[in-house]
Amino acid sequence: MFLRRRLFPFVLFAAVIYLLKRRIFSPPPPPNYELTIETAYAHYGFSRGISTFQPDGLSKHLVLPCTPNDDISWLSTLPQWLNLTPKVYHVPLTNSSAPPPGTLTVPKNKGNEVMTYLTYILEHYSDLPDLIVFIHASVSTWHNNDLHIFTTPLMLRELNYRRAKQRGYMNLRCHWSPGCPGWIKPLTGIYNEIKGEEFYLGQVFKYLFPGVAIPEVFGATCCAQFVVTRERIRANSLEEYKRWRDWLMTTELPDKYSGRVMEYLWHYIFSDRQSIDCPKEHVCYCDGYGVCFGSEAAYQAHMAVGKETAVLEQRLQAAVDQGPREGEDLKLRWEGMQELSADIEDKKRRLEREIDVARQRGRDPKARKNEVGNTEFSG
For the segment 248-265, what is each residue's pLDDT rounded down to a tens digit? Predict the structure, then answer.
């Protein structure tokens, strides 16, 4: 349905993956390496997963739903210098046993991540940290950022939490598709199979926000992974959060639609009721993660090469899977595949170099400010 979803299985940046596997997917290093950002930098240098925005002095909770089938062992890879306390909510399945006493859990498995998010808020409303990160349980997923090779720990390690603190709300995803700039038009009254949540949002808005005129359009990057401040959460009353969870508990909508309705309302809930929140992609990467290509045009050129590389990898893999055609010249076939493979590797090396340069550029506050402008710059 969406290009990135189709290309998700294909790795764009081989050297980056090597670094990520070496550090994130291998057993964690001795704790003293990750005790502070200074000790981490001294050990690793400014490699992937080392943030230019730390230390930030902000307290944080990491809220995520977890079914018995989910593997959240990746949480052990998060360093102490992030000051990120996990709040894992047990989400029962039909055949799962009751969790041990004291386990954080939800009243009902409904609405995907929404039940966990609202339950956390209701339970912690009076005792919130500076920032709350709401996220899914998967270590990797198609809707994570391309330049973080779709990997959750890398996003969390490189994130500029000060930007979230300044904005009040920040979606972790930089890429506009799907969601921006105006994905949901709830007044159409027409069911669209590709985005059925559009129709249902129009139906339930009056209950979720009684007496409020429904906006003509909602726009925000998908997919319900974001950071929000304590102040933004408390800008809504406990009664409102109770009403939203009560709706979720009783709605007859299937989970995929009740969850997606809220997916395109979180930014609305945690703002002064702004229906569109679509920072430009290169701005999100630059001020949000310290990956600065120098301009929007340079960022777009980089992404174009990445997509082209993924398409070439698809073509090469298809040729391998299909094998030679009847009567095909095997020598020419081999030479063509070798040439295609070399082209792919050249492009990957270019992409790796560009990301390294972009990350180095992102370390300079003046460079970040010059690229994103005064309004988006978080310091």
Answer: 999 999 999 999 999 999
Residues forming a β-bridge with 88? 64
Given a contact cutoff of 8 angstroms between Cβ atoms, the answer to whether 160 and 287 are in contact is yes
Q: How far apart are CA 376 and CA 68, in angstroms?
A: 40
Pairing of strands 226-229, 131-134: antiparallel
Is residue 30 packed enough to be buried (19+ CB in 10 Å), middle (13-18) or exposed (0-12)? exposed
Alpha helices of 251-295 — where are they, by DSSP H? 255-263, 266-269, 281-289
Radius of gyration over every alpha carbon of the chain, rounded to an integer in angstroms? 22
Arithmetic mean of pLDDT over the chain: 92
178-237: per-residue pLDDT in tens? 999 999 999 999 999 999 999 999 999 999 999 999 999 999 999 999 999 999 999 999
Tracing tokens 């294909």 back to the chain, one arrives at 10
Encode pLDDT of 37-85 as tens digits: 999 999 999 999 999 999 999 999 999 999 999 999 999 999 999 999 9
* pLDDT level of residue 32 (50, 70, 90 thresholds): confident
Crossing angle (nearest 10°) for helices 365-372 and 281-289 = 160
Separation CA 305–CA 330 (nearest Å): 29
- Sequence-distant contacts of 43-46: CB under 8 A, at least 24 apart: 46/359, 46/360, 46/363
Helices 255-263 and 196-208: crossing angle, nearest 10°?
A: 70
User: Of 266, 251, 185, which Cα lies nearest the Cα of 221?
Assistant: 266
**Distance (Å, whole) CA 299 – CA 257:** 33
| Cα–Cα nearest to 177, from 222, 218, 227, 129 | 222
Is the overall model pTM greater than 0.85, yes or no? Answer: yes
Strand extents, DSSP E, the chain: 60-66, 84-90, 131-134, 169-171, 219-220, 226-229, 276-277
CA count, 13 A, side-chain hemisphere, 351: 27
- Report yes or no: 158 and 292 within 8 Å, Cβ to Cβ: no
